[in-house]
Design brief:
343 residues; alpha/beta; Rossmann fold; 8-stranded mixed sheet; globular; L-asparaginase_N; Probable L-asparaginase; asparaginase activity
Length: 343
């Protein structure tokens, strides 16, 4: 009889989808001395406190929580990123887990989300969420963002769509989204494609599908990645110089992402220095500082002549993530370029 009651109670408890919330810190977990101040400290509020601020969450899902880290996302490093991806994979491998929500600072959310989009193998929902106003701010956006993120993670429509980012009522594909404003609550945009859908007070609507490979059909797998190679981003500008290229080479960079001008264009001395880096076995990828649009082949630069790769329409920070992951599998330039066209 006791065993029967235990099973019955478990059935009641898990009637709602089980969603894990993995917390990493960020503005959503930040605090300020004043409700009307832009000065605050990120990553000071624990995940349990975040959830208590939104009691309505219990209506959406059965929720379990873990604190992966409690930092501002400007402090995110490879070790924490790998830890986050491995834990996400381990949870999604459990049949009873429906999805994972990851609270994350907004500064580097687009990079972390894209990393998991490449290396975690699952059709189950993975949703990143954050806030542009800290938890003690007047009209903080974190509670509603979190409510919407868990609603998306609990929704069957979110399955098979790769890693998602939910901010300000919009559902974005991890590959496409970027932070476009320093402080506004609508900072996150998918500039090349638009969002996949919207979520209004937990009501989920999808209108688009991601077309690039991700998660369950990716050739990359967190299980086989022990560490990530050094890849640096160099920002192009008028009257540029190759000094930082030489510094990157001296520090052992295996890849360089050029945040070029316009269509990935380069100052003449920088162009020659990057060609020299390729001759030394370093992979060079041309991206753009513009923020949207693709790097064309051919363009003003003859990539075949210099053995440069192009990032398609990935911005420099996303191109860096993909190149780091890709270099764990191969250094073949043809294969690497194909990855930039597929992911």
């Amino acid at each position: 009889m006791r065993a029967f009651l235990s099973l019955l109670l478990m059935g009641v408890c898990w009637a709602k989808p089980l969603v894990y919330v993995l917390a990493t810190g960020g503005t959503i977990a930040g605090n300020s001395a004043s409700q009307l101040s832009s000065a605050y400290k990120a990553g000071t509020v624990g995940v349990g406190t975040l959830l208590k601020a939104v009691p309505q969450l219990k209506n959406l899902a059965a929720i379990q929580t873990e604190q992966i880290s409690n930092i501002g996302s400007q402090e995110m490093d490879n070790a924490t990123l790998l830890k986050l991806a491995r834990r996400t994979q381990a949870l999604l491998d459990r049949p009873e887990v429906h999805g994972v929500v990851i609270t994350h600072g907004t500064d580097t959310m687009e990079e972390s989300a894209y990393f998991l989009d490449l290396v975690v193998h699952s059709k189950k929902p993975i949703v990143f969420v954050g806030a542009m106003r800290n938890a003690s701010s007047l009209s903080a956006d974190g509670p509603l963002n979190l409510y919407n993120a868990i609603a998306v993670a609990a929704d069957k429509q979110a399955q098979g769509k790769g890693v998602l980012v939910v901010m300000d009522g919009c559902i974005h594909a991890a590959r496409e989204v970027s932070k476009t404003n320093t402080t506004h609550t609508d900072a996150f945009k998918s500039l090349n494609t638009g969002p996949l859908g919207s979520v209004l007070y937990g009501q989920v609507h999808f209108y688009m599908q991601p077309t690039r490979k991700h998660t369950f059909n990716s050739v990359f797998n967190i299980a086989s990645i022990k560490s990530l190679p050094r890849v640096d981003i160099l920002y192009a500008h008028e009257n540029d110089n190759p000094d930082f290229i030489q510094a990157a080479l001296a520090k052992g960079a295996l890849g360089i992402i050029s945040a070029g001008m316009g269509n990935g264009n380069l100052y003449p001395s920088v162009l020659q220095s990057l060609a020299g880096a390729v001759a030394r076995g370093v992979v060079v990828v041309r991206s753009s500082r513009v923020g949207s649009g693709e790097i064309t082949q051919p363009g003003e630069i003859n990539d075949a002549k210099y053995n440069f790769l192009t990032s398609d329409n990935l911005n420099p920070s996303k191109a860096r993530i993909l190149l780091m992951v890709a270099l764990t599998k191969t250094q073949d330039l043809k294969t690497l370029q194909q990855y930039f066209l597929e992911y």
